[in-house]
Request: fold
Amino acid sequence: MSRIRAKNTGIEKTVFSYLRKRKVHFCKHYDRIPGKPDIALPSEKKAVFINGDFWHGYRFGTWKQRIPKKYWRDKIESNIARDKKRYAAMKKRGWKILKVWGHDVMKRPEEACKKIEKFLRSKR
Reply:
């Protein structure tokens, strides 16, 4: 467990590299708002979260029973609840949020990165 990274994962590095090559300026792991988004544009109040499938509960209801330890089921459920609260707090403060799943970046990196770039560059 000690080798599991919270920041600068391989998936995040892929996205960061893509955005830098495309001259998109952003803040990494912005800690001045709840949730510490992986990518943020504070001046435009835009945040991107790149969520790991396991830790953030992608389709958790379909595989929940296969996790052998109650501790891990509870941990993931609390992560999901925490994420919802943080997203709501950010939206209340006027932030626009984009959530991207890790498997989307791994399977289709170009498509996922373009989606993130489009969100960050849009004038909503």
In short: The chain has a mean pLDDT of 89. The two ends are 40 Å apart (CA to CA). The longest strand covers residues 46-51. The first helix runs from residue 10 to 21.
